[in-house]
């Protein structure tokens, strides 16, 4: 069974904006919170009901909380609409955990997902989904997970970003190089708003994606800078044969509360692995990292 990195590492602490349980974000988009707020899920998982006619598309299902099912049922009744299909952004429980509960209420609903599980229909890169008021195109954007999708919304020139880009804070990822490649793809495709998997809507989607890319690049530069002996912030550490990820965290994230350092260490390890693949760092003694001569190129 795959383990969810979003359930293993908390996102950095931010002051969360208040979001209503149900909110119309545009004439054809209603956000329904998953009813699962927490340090891993922020205000809760965003699920989106899309369209203007009797048949709507639903993006993600939260964890299947009773409050979410009740809010979805109430919203569909008020809209005099039904669900034409459910589109899942990725396999994490807080995005697809509500599928079973949804099918108990609406058993004939079609569920679509990249790398589908039993009973689900496959989504391939570039596949289109259309209901009155909403035409979506699926784009495979691995990094947060290997099956991760975002959806382009033609009518608004907008993008549903899943967990690759959040409304607040930064995202976790399985593979940094892959994740950065997906962010670059997303930046070239997003022309308007970004509707994230967690947090408030982002008015400047391309700008936020570019900010994410810069943030990751800055963290990489900080790791390289800290590994250089002449720049060592710890005299004792500079005499050691390399740095452990946690020693790097204590320098790079010194302004972050210590109870979040373990979470930060996971991101630092991802940076080190990317730099290792590029030949810029090497690991010795199992967990000590140092720069190579190639890092100066």
Which key terms come to mind for this protein?
five-stranded mixed sheet, disordered N terminus, 8 helices, Arc Repressor Mutant, subunit A, seven-stranded mixed sheet, Metallo-beta-lactamase, Chain A, alpha/beta, 297 residues, 31% helix
Strand content: 15-25%
**Helix-strand sequence:** EEEEHEHHEEEEEEHEHHHHEE
CATH architecture of the largest domain: 4-Layer Sandwich
Task: Report the helical percentage.
Answer: 25-40%
Radius of gyration: 21 Å
What is the strand arrangement across the widest sheet? 1-2-3-4-5-6-7
User: Structural class, from secondary structure content?
Assistant: alpha/beta
What is the number of helices? 8
Uncertain residue segments: 3-12, 234-239
- Distance N to C terminus: 41 Å
Describe the protein in words.
One of its GO terms (biological process) is secondary metabolite biosynthetic process. InterPro entries: LACTB2-like_MBL-fold (IPR047921), LACTB2_WH (IPR041516), Metallo-B-lactamas (IPR001279), RibonucZ/Hydroxyglut_hydro (IPR036866), Sec-metab_biosynth-thioest (IPR050662), WH-like_DNA-bd_sf (IPR036388). This protein is of the alpha/beta class and 297 residues long. The protein has 2 domains: 5-215, Ribonuclease Z/Hydroxyacylglutathione hydrolase-like (Metallo-beta-lactamase, Chain A, 4-Layer Sandwich); 228-296, Orthogonal Bundle (Arc Repressor Mutant, subunit A). Helices cover 31% and strands 22% of the residues. It contains 8 helices and 14 strands. The strands form 3 sheets. The protein has a 7-stranded mixed β-sheet, covered by helices on one side. Strands 8-9-10-11-12 form a 5-stranded mixed β-sheet. Strand 3 (46-50) and strand 4 form a beta hairpin. The two termini are 41 Å apart. 42% of the residues are buried.
